[in-house]
Amino acid sequence: MKKPGAVNWLFAAPALALMALVSAVPIGQTFYLAGEFGRLPLDTRLRAVLWNTGVFTFWTVSLELILGLTIALLLTRPFHGRGLVRAAVLVPWALPTAIMAMAWRWIFNSEYGVLGDLLFRAGLSGSPHIPWLASPGPAMAACILADVWKTTPFMTILLMSGLAGIPEELYEAASIDGAGPARRFLFITLPLLMPTIALAVLFRAIQSFGVFDLIYVLTGGGPGGSTQTIALYIYDSVFRYLELGYGCALTLVMAGCLLLLAGLVYLPKRSRG
Amino acid sequence: MRWILAAALLFPLVACRKPEEDSGKTVIRFLANPDVGGFAKDIIARFEAENPDVRVEMVEGPAATNTREDMYATSLMAEEDTYDVVYMDVVWMPKFAAQGWLRPLDDFFTPELQKQFLPGDIEGARFRGRLYRVPVQSDGGMLYYRKDLLEKAGLAPPRTFDELFAAAKRLQAPPDRWGFVYQGKQYEGLVCVFLELVWGSGGDILDAAGKVVLDAPPAVEALRWLKGTVGTISPPGVLTFQEEEARHAFQEGRAVFMRNWPYAYNLMNLPGSPVRGKFGIMPMVHGPGGKSAATLGGWGYGISAFSKNPEAAWRFIEFSARPENMKLAFFKGGILPSRTALYTDPEVLRAVPHMKDLLPVLHAAKPRPVHPRYARISDVVQMAVSAAISGQKDPQEALEAAARELRSFAQ
């Protein structure tokens, strides 16, 4: 058989040209424009935003994985009205982030926020005025909570598709051999779901690491810069300070972090074979 | 189907063309906030009646000022002539001017004309010795106080930090009524609040020679005082307040004193407002070493360096800044004029008597550092002040770190 060379490339050419236009060119420009790398190691704000971004990513992805897996397991079992529940679970994910972030800002508002009011009515707080977004810890927790609320459905869908791919016969065989639900989960579901989990975690980690809109609207990076993430810092550098070179350098740092993250998620899988 | 698609693809190209060829008129375009009250359209109509050869196209952009700043910056960065006139917040000007995006107005904006405007507004229009902006709207921070409560307690309106603190402490009844509310969230408003206190203590961020003095004793004292308000005379939630949160608290009778801009005055005096007629305004309090100061806000017009019709653009700017048009903007849109004479104008005073109280406030108004990297300076200051008043850092340490950072790029 002839080697499938030139003709295949010819067919792929339009798609490749489009890819080059929308990704290779901007990426190339970023490298071209990036400058002032000497500032990077001295930049205390960079260290702070990387730490904040790391904290945000770790907590959102972990919580979303646990919650998403729980919900996915519940929703794969057939029950009455499952279609409706599945659709309802998707609602937060379908909302535009900026709008739901605005709603969370109202929920967390210290003067008229509903969360403080609920806790007050339930007798859990002495006053309905709780300034959630006024101190670093609670402000970060608020961002994480809003993100978990919004993006858990995404995790759920991905994991559900993975669960659907596990053959029912395996569970049957295991049941006949006397394996209980816990063992079936540990020795069938979890290992077979691993590739999907890795993929879902990678997707989410990349998204989470680049979070912008949610935090921009909810806290604006405050208080005291304690919820500022690297995407917000890059936005400030490029659009507000007009420091294009340094902004591009920061973008490269961010891209490097993402590659590292992707490596961390995929490496364990590779080593297992 | 294919035709619809093609039309949809081509439509933006057609729609983006500048339509000046059709009419033979010179088109002057600028981006502005939504024209609430409709006065801007009136001024344009008056201008076009007087100048039949020019058509003014006002693009009503988003209400968020930072979004409009980005829209201008994106267009000017590409050196496009989309906008002939640049309608600017006072803090954008140095950044735009330093990039060479604005045309100096010294030839048009004569010293005699300048004298008719508030001194702070002119100071905020100057960058590296040249003028780039004609102010048409003035703005300055000030102190609102509950006249009724102070009178009942037999207290005079406070003049100093200590008097404000004592009066607030005495008249408050937390959590229902706090002593003092202001803009404490980490954003531009916090810098305005902080600067008034620093100026009031005799300090500054950058001194007259451009050296960073943010870690000098006056600034540290001002920040200590501000930190001391949180949880004692100000609600802990003040750290999340912007203008509107503060106004709502004050308007609903939940605060004795408030730092805010003039816009709140009319809103709080509307029928149905619980504090209607019960409050007064005065310049911000000051420390032992200083005098009252206000942070200057406000808007003005500049001309894009890429405009092909600077002369027509100037005609429009000069027209908009005429006293009768500022009056129109004031009556129809509540826009504070930037011309000194209008604050003693009988017609204005008859309609809004408190305008005479505003004049001393605006006379004491100073621009924030007029610096091309102001946006970055502001962020550094915001973060330091926010970290200090939310208890993450000691005020002295926070300002020392911020000053170190400022010295690395701002002097």
Give a structural overview.
- The complex is a heterodimer of chains A (273) and B (411).
- Chain A is mainly alpha-helical and 273 residues long.
- Chain A is built from eleven helices and no strands.
- Chain A has helices at residues 6-33, 44-76, 82-94, 97-107, 114-121, 136-164, 168-176, 181-209, 213-218, 230-240, 244-272.
- Chain A is flat.
- Chain A starts with 5 loop residues before the first helix and ends with a helix.
- Chain B is of the alpha/beta class and 411 residues long.
- In chain B, the strands form four sheets. In chain B, strands 3, 6, 11 and 12 form a four-stranded mixed sheet that branches.
- In chain B, helix 10 crosses helix 11 (217-229), helix 10 (188-200) packs across helix 18 (374-389) and helix 18 packs antiparallel against helix 19 (395-409).
- The model of chain B is unreliable at 12-17 (pLDDT under 50).
- Classes of the chains: A mainly alpha (273), B alpha/beta (411).
Biggest interface, chains and residues, is: A-B, 28 and 36 residues
Structure classification of chain A: mainly alpha
Mean pLDDT rating of chain A:
90
If you average the pLDDT of chain B, what whole number results? 91
Number of helices of chain B: 19
Number of strands of chain A: 0
Instruction: State Rg of chain B.
Output: 23 Å
Low-confidence runs of chain B? 12-17
Alpha plus pi helix count of chain A:
11
The global form of chain B is globular
Distance between the first and last residues' Cα of chain B: 61 Å
Helix content of chain B: 40-55%
User: How far is it from the N-terminal to the C-terminal residue of chain A, by CA?
Assistant: 32 Å
| Main β sheet profile of chain A | none
Q: Sum up the overall morphology of chain A in one term.
A: flat
- Which consecutive residue ranges of chain A, at least 5 long each, have pLDDT under 50? none
Largest β sheet strand count, sense and barrel closure of chain B: 4 strands, mixed
Strand residue content of chain B: 5-15%
- Strand residue content of chain A: under 5%
